[in-house]
Amino acid sequence: xxxxxxxxxxxxxxxxxxxxxxxxxxxxxxSSIKIIKKNGEAGYIVELLEEGDAGISCDCCVGEEIxxxxxxxxxxxxxxxxxxxxxxxxxxxxx
Length: 95
Ligand code: SF4
Ligand code: SF4
Prior knowledge:
Layout: E1 2-5, H1 13-23, E2 33-37, E3 44-48, H2 68-71, H3 76-94
Antiparallel strand pairs: 1-3, 2-3
The structure holds iron/sulfur cluster (SF4) (2 copies).
C-alpha cells in the first residue's frame, strides 16, 4: 500500500529500524517499509509491504511498544497518520 509523504526527507532510517524489528540487524532488503523517490515533487512515497508483495510484509510491529519505523522518524506525526490508516485498512481486510 502506497502513501504520499510530502515532508519525508528520504533518510531511510525507518527502513533500517524496520529491518531491526524483523531480524535484529540492519538491512534495507529486510524492511517492510520502502521509501520511493517522486518525480520532482517534494517528499517521498512511503510503501508498506503486504502479504503477496515481494519482501517481508509489515506485521504492525507486533511485540514492540511503538512501531520502530515511527520511533526513529524525524517526521513521526505524519508517519503516524500513515501507519494508522494502513493498520486500519489491514484490520478491515482481516474482518
Ligand atoms: S510498523 Fe511495519 S513497517 Fe513499521 S517498523 Fe514495524 S513492521 Fe516495519
Ligand atoms: S524515517 Fe521518516 S523522514 Fe526518514 S525516510 Fe523514513 S519516513 Fe521519511
